[in-house]
Design brief:
three-stranded mixed beta sheet; single chain; 6% strand; mainly alpha
Length: 225
């Protein structure tokens, strides 16, 4: 039977759950640890990010505060850094590292970083395929139509591609943040790097999970031919 209750899928689900728990636990631990250590810089995470943006050729980018913890992101649509309360208001190693990482994304956009452009171009397609692939997949199972199953897998592959492109974009943003911090202070680079590495691992775990799922679905689709 083509379903979710065969052993390979159960193994993938368990491995994915474990990776998610481990990476989330790691980033929470690293963030809490370095949130207690002052960065040694003048100002908050938002202040340091502002200076990084100005120096990096992205002075037109705005910064605003949002609710939540580690909910930070850069949105090219409104050209704003959206920083969570602690990272906006506080000046810890963790706050500064995360704020500068998001500033790195804004600088990528301002300077025309090719992978950032490619990732942004994929967003409309991903928004569509990520919401529709499972509906097509279930329809393919219900009507026993291999063509629909293959189309669903192709749609899911677009999501996987997006996640794979996201990895180097995230790594480059962290590289830019660490490079900037290395020029302006004696901030604990080991701490900043630990926070950003922990955050990157969540993207790695998500990509690995999606790749395993894609391989599974591709195999099951071939079996249905």
């Amino acid at each position: 039977m083509y379903g979710y209750y065969d052993m390979p899928y159960i193994v993938i689900a368990v491995v994915s759950l474990l990776m998610g728990l481990l990476t989330q636990g790691y980033i929470n631990k690293a963030y809490r640890k370095w949130s207690q250590v002052p960065s040694g810089l003048s100002g908050t995470g938002a202040d340091v990010a502002r200076r990084m943006l100005d120096q990096g050729g992205a002075s037109e980018v705005g910064i605003t505060q949002i609710d939540g913890t580690l909910t930070d992101y850069y949105d090219p649509r409104d050209n704003m850094l959206h920083l969570s309360h602690d990272n906006y208001e506080r000046g810890s190693v963790a706050s500064v590292a995360v704020a500068c990482h998001e500033a790195g994304h804004a600088i990528q956009n301002a300077t025309g970083y090719s992978l950032m452009r490619f990732r942004t171009a994929l967003v409309p397609a991903v928004n569509f395929t990520s919401q529709t692939w499972i509906l097509i997949f279930m329809a393919g199972i219900f009507f026993n139509m291999t063509g629909l199953l293959k189309l669903a897998v192709a749609f899911f592959a677009v999501t996987v591609l997006f996640q794979l492109v996201t990895l180097p974009v995230e790594i480059d943003a962290s590289r830019r943040a660490l490079a900037y911090l290395g020029t302006v202070s004696d901030i604990d680079h080991a701490g900043a790097k630990e926070v950003l590495t922990a955050a990157a691992l969540t993207y790695v775990a998500s990509a690995l999970t999606s790749i395993m799922q894609l391989v599974y679905y591709m195999g099951r689709t071939r079996d249905s031919d």
